[in-house]
Each structure stands twice: as C-alpha cells, then as structure tokens.
Amino acid sequence: MATEAELEHPRKAFGWAARNASGLLSPFNFSRRETGEKDVRLKVLYSGVCHSDLHMIKNEWGETTFPIVPGHEITGIVTEVGSKVQKFKVGDNVGVGSLVGSCHSCQDCIDNLENYCPNPILTYGVEDIDGTMTYGGYSDSMVADEHFVINIPDTLPLDVAAPLLCAGITVYSPLLYFGLDKPGLNIGVVGLGGLGHMAVKFAKAFGANVTVISTSPNKKEEAIQHLGVDSFLISSDHDQMNAAIGTLDGIIDTVSAFHPLSPLIGLLKSHGKLVMLGAPVKPLELPVFPLLLGRKIVAGSHMGGLKETQEMIDFAAKHNVKPEVEVIPIDYVNTAMERLVKADVKYRFVIDIGNTLKANF
Ligand code: NAP
Ligand code: ZN
Ligand code: ZN
Known about the structure:
Blueprint: H1 4-7, E1 11-18, E2 25-32, E3 39-48, H2 51-57, E4 74-81, E5 93-96, E6 99-101, H3 107-110, E7 121-122, E8 141-145, E9 150-151, H4 158-161, H5 167-177, E10 186-190, H6 194-205, E11 209-214, H7 220-225, E12 231-234, H8 238-243, E13 248-253, H9 262-267, E14 268-276, H10 289-294, E15 297-300, H11 306-319, E16 325-328, H12 333-341, E17 348-352, H13 353-356
Parallel strand pairs: 10-11, 10-13, 11-12, 13-14, 14-15, 16-17
Antiparallel strand pairs: 1-2, 3-4, 3-8, 3-17, 4-5, 5-9, 6-7
The protein binds NADP nicotinamide-adenine-dinucleotide phosphate (NAP) and zinc ion (2 copies).
Family: Belongs to the zinc-containing alcohol dehydrogenase family.
EC number: 1.1.1.255
GO molecular function, one term: mannitol dehydrogenase activity
C-alpha cells in the first residue's frame, strides 16, 4: 500500500531516508510536486554528505521529523522549467543548497540574507509552504523555486561542486563578513573536515597564512603538502599550542562536538575574532576573561544568502577553489556516516546519485 509520502504529490520520487533516530538510511518512495510556474526541476546527480545530515538523521538536535531524506549539497541537470522561470533552461548544470524557500519580505530577505530569515524553508525535514514535508538530495529529483537554485559554471565538475553548496558558502560568508579575507592575515581553522578544508582553501585563495588546529595527527602531512596549510597544530599538544599563542587574526571553528574554547581564544591576537560554525549538541563553555583582556570577539555564522552563494560559486570557479571529495555509491552511505563520526574523511563524501541510486517504483 502506498504511504502518505507517496500520495502527497503527483510526481513519483525515490531516495534514501532515515526512519528513526538510529539514523540508518534505507530506500524510500515518496513524491514531489509538479513543476510550478517559477520552479526548476532537476535530475539529481550528486549529493554531498554534511555533518548536519548526520546530526539530523540521529535527531541529535531534537528537532527531526521522521522519515527524513537528508542532503543539502545537491548538484544536477535541469529537466523542466516553469513558464515564468528566467534564469535557467533545460540541460543547465545547477545546484541547490540548504534553503528552498523564505518569506521574501523580512529585512533579512530584502538584504539578500535569506539564510537569516525567521521563516526559512530548509531543503529537508521541515514543513513546506503547502503543509507537506521537504525532502533533500539523497534522492533522484528536486524541485525548487528558481530563486533558490544556483548556476554551476561548466568549469566546475558537478561532483566536486556539490560541497560548495553548504560547506563552501558556510565558510566563505564569515570570512568576508568578518573581514578575514584580506591578504597576509593569519587565519586559524579548527577541525579539518568538510567545512574546515573549504575554509583552508578559501583563506588561501584570499592570500592568508593558514594554521589548522586539529585532533588528527594523520591529517598533517597531506594538509601541508596538498592543501597548502602553512602550520598544523595538534590541539592536545600543549607545547605546540603555547608556542602559537597570540598569533592569529581570526579563527574559523568547524568542530561538530564539544571542545574547549579557551585554548582557541588564546591563539588570537588582541581584537582577534573566533567565528563558530560547528553546531555541537552540548553548549560550549565561554571563558570571559581572555576576551576582556584582548578585546576579542566570539561570533557565529549560518550558511549564506542566495546572492552570496552564487558569488562564492563564481569565485570558486574563477580561482580554482575545488573541494576534495570521496565519491561513494548510495549503498555506502551508512558506512560513510560511521566514518564521519570518527572524523575519518578527506574531506567530503559525495554520493554518486546519478549512477548508483536506482528507483524501485
Ligand atoms: P566534519 O566533516 O565531520 O568535520 C568536523 C571536524 O571536526 C572533524 O573532521 C574533526 O577534525 C573535528 N572534530 C570532530 N570531533 C571532534 C572533537 N570531539 N573534538 C575536536 N574536534 C573534533 O563536519 P562538517 O560537515 O565540516 O560540519 C562541521 C560542523 O558544522 C557540524 O556540527 C555541522 O552541523 C556544522 N555546520 C554548520 C553550518 C552553519 O551554517 N553554521 C553549516 C554546515 C555545517 P580534525 O580531525 O581535524 O580534528
Ligand atoms: Zn550542511
Ligand atoms: Zn524572510
């Protein structure tokens, strides 16, 4: 018998979903709406695996509605456009990130900061405008208003481009906003995973000296030789950390789990900025004295607006800023999630949806 998710809309869709907080993903039949007049429909070819997908399928933030089809680093090819679509045509290479809707009328939306809209429609796991649930990119097709669709230049292969849609924009936006994009600055990056390696790449493209602060000694050699990292500190090595005190202008913190902030604040120069991007389940402890004594700033940042996302993609294409991906078949995705838990990733898993996801309608 057909489930509710299969009957909501006229168009059949197929993906992989988690049914409960075990987070185990398995095949899932559902449906998507018809292509509306401002909608772009795409065949999904690749979907990146963000740590937020992992937090969500395990209900670590306590806000997951099951079944959930994750995936918000989506690339593919346009298969249909509505009659009023202006930016895209059938056959275009496109991407969809973390947002498929927003209110369009609040100040943040007016300022092209849809990512801070109080009523965003996330790409998966929330109620859409018609009361149905949104489902993400671990699936064969997507449909979204053209405002939330990004053009991918031909010079960016679609597998490599996928992680830019979340990891890329999430690090690019704060580097610009907090003035950490100036040549010659000393920039720290904490956690060398999906977001972290993109922070390294964009900071290097802006002309920074980059220091990685990591828990994984086995990532050091490749980080220096391949990613061009200037300095690699093991966070548990107190001698290394002490030697670097007061050296950094800004730090991008991408750690997905609880960790102490005090040593990181110590690495900042006076007036330095620690920007939090990771979303650990447990609140972190913020020591105040080290902030007061150097007029330091601790801030946060969340994804990016659609205009800035397109600018980031165009910058990445122009300056050859390309994510390092491990392309996997869909039936490897549960193993990939286990590896993500162990920080065993260099540096982003991308699911080859086009070649390995087979619908069983
Ligand atoms: P990821 O690929 O798993 O990378 C996280 C890295 O953090 C790991 O590779 C590891 O790097 C480090 N790490 C993991 N556990 C740690 C621990 N217990 N202590 C210290 N370091 C640890 O994850 P991601 O996809 O980059 O996402 C990172 C975080 O950002 C997640 O919480 C995710 O939900 C969040 N996020 C936020 C936004 C936003 O808009 N703000 C957007 C996307 C994702 P090392 O091996 O180098 O230590
Ligand atoms: Zn993400
Ligand atoms: Zn809004």
